[in-house]
Amino acid sequence: MPHPTPSYDLIIVGAGPGGSVAALTAAKAGLRTLFFERGARPGEKNASGCGLGPRMWRAFDFMEQLTPAVCPSMREGNAIRHHLVDETGQVAARMMTRPTRSVGYEPAARFITMNAYRSDFDPWLASLATAAGAELRCSTLITGLHHEKGRVAGVVDEQGSVHRAPMVIGADGVLSTVARAAGIRERWKRDEVVLVPQLDFAVEPGRIDDVLGDESLACWWGVDFPAAYQVFFRDGFHIGLGNWLDAWDQDAMAPLRRVVELPDFQRLIRTLHAEPRELQVHLLPWLTDPGKTYSQGVMLVGDAGGFPCPLEAEGVYQAMETGRVAAEVAAEALGAGDPSEAFLAEYERRWRASSVGVEFEAGPELARIWRALPFSPEQNMSWFIPMVSELLGGIFDWSEPHAVRMQQVAQHLRGYAPQALPFFEDEVVPLLGAVYGDEIRELTSWRSMMRMAGIALRLRRAARGRS
Ligand SMILES: Cc1cc2nc3c(=O)[nH]c(=O)nc-3n(C[C@H](O)[C@H](O)[C@H](O)COP(=O)(O)OP(=O)(O)OC[C@H]3O[C@@H](n4cnc5c(N)ncnc54)[C@H](O)[C@@H]3O)c2cc1C
């Protein structure tokens, strides 16, 4: 019996940022493209990736079309406020940072992030794909892959209907059905996925600008809770605090409650007249390396492939970029009539060469230092925060003559050496080594620095002795 002609060239499961950019790219390349979304519309679950990084504007021309007319919650911000919280719940030090002078392109010098609720952003992105000719089917849960003669030949939905195409892109997020159905992996391990409870507050439009100016994000770093992040939109903000599944041995809401109850946080709620709007709990893969992301007839993009950045878990840009690369490779594979696993290895070669892959070159070291510092509060933030607070606060102090204060601060800082120096060697030096090479690893090891300091001291004494 002749093989039924596939209705589509490419099927994409998921209409988040990864799926929509894959669909847009494929439709523009002339592929008959069908993408599925289980929600009634894209963005329905209002997933939490809302801080959009400037790399998206550099990589995708269409981002210039993102305006408040199509995305009313969008708000760009140029500053991050860091609150360092001590064990009493007081903010011991506070800092504000902005893009620095070494940032080389616009709009990265103009904004740190463009914040937009995903319930606005995702439908807009999907509409670009449908305008380019891709077909979107919502309210359709894909439950598995369809095979013919041992090869991937489409997908199956929850009604049991088969949708045919010789290639499938899994853009179905952290719990990817496609990844498992293709045999690429089983569920994430507990140390590969984070659970993030997040509270959303409504704020009258304009008030956040009035109170916070151009602040985009805030980080709450604590000695007794893992780091929490706050994202400010035009008409609201989130506060979220996640951790790897293997670290949750208690009520997952407790650390978030601790932050929300801080006096400074409560004051912010009052000043902004903020009203609690929604509690969300999402999962996110957070890996040192995505590993295998393809098999015969299948490629995984975005969270389905484990692509969020190993340091901060930025994942929207990564989903869009891998979505584009996968669709380009799909077009070439179909052109060559070869959706084999060997052909699709090209996908991994390309994403590794892209800005997404470069991020993973120091993936283990980036993820390690993040886990060891803000996510190990009792172990390391308990000395790190007092140390930084001493440094910042000790400079601006009128309690003694300044020279006396400088000596007092230096004396006090020496007390942190037993914790700070091994941390520097175990966590910071490997990262510097991964970024700059082995030479710097040797130069920056604290033992070699102590050796150099010893030599410098001896030389100074010798010079004094000669004069
Ligand atoms: C709390 C939190 C905060 C974050 N903050 C940021 C941030 O500020 N900036 C940033 O860049 N990233 C952030 N991220 C990461 C970012 O949200 C994700 O990396 C990004 O959404 C991945 O996009 P995606 O298209 O791969 O997957 P998703 O956005 O998860 O989209 C997958 C889509 O597929 C659909 N779907 C799933 N299964 C099926 C199925 N079987 N059939 C049909 N449809 C299906 C889903 O409904 C969904 O619409 C955050 C993540 C979390 C959890």
Give your account of this protein's structure.
The chain has 467 residues and is α+β, with helices and mostly antiparallel strands. The longest helix is centred in the C-terminal third of the chain and has 21 residues, at 446-466. β1, α1 and β2 form a beta-alpha-beta unit. It has 3 domains: 10-74 and 116-187 and 291-361, FAD/NAD(P)-binding domain (3-Layer(bba) Sandwich); 75-114 and 193-285, D-Amino Acid Oxidase, Chain A, domain 2; 366-466, no CATH class. The protein has helices at 17-28, 55-59, 118-131, 177-181, 207-212, 254-260, 263-272, 302-305, 316-335, 341-353, 355-361, 363-372, 377-395, 402-414, 417-436, 438-444, 446-466; strands at 10-13, 33-36, 51-52, 75-77, 79-85, 91-97, 113-115, 135-137, 142-148, 151-157, 162-164, 167-170, 193-202, 215-222, 228-232, 236-240, 243-244, 275-285, 294-295, 298-300. It has 17 helices and 20 strands. It is globular. The strands form 4 sheets. Strands 5, 6, 13, 14, 15, 16, 17 and 18 form an 8-stranded mixed β-sheet that branches. Strands 8-2-1-12-20-19 form a 6-stranded mixed β-sheet. It has a 3-stranded antiparallel β-sheet with strand order 3-7-4, with no helix packed on it. Residues 13-19, 36-39, 42, 45, 47-51, 141-142, 171-173, 177, 196, 198, 231, 240, 282, 284, 302-304, 308, 313-317, 319 line the site of flavin-adenine dinucleotide (FAD).
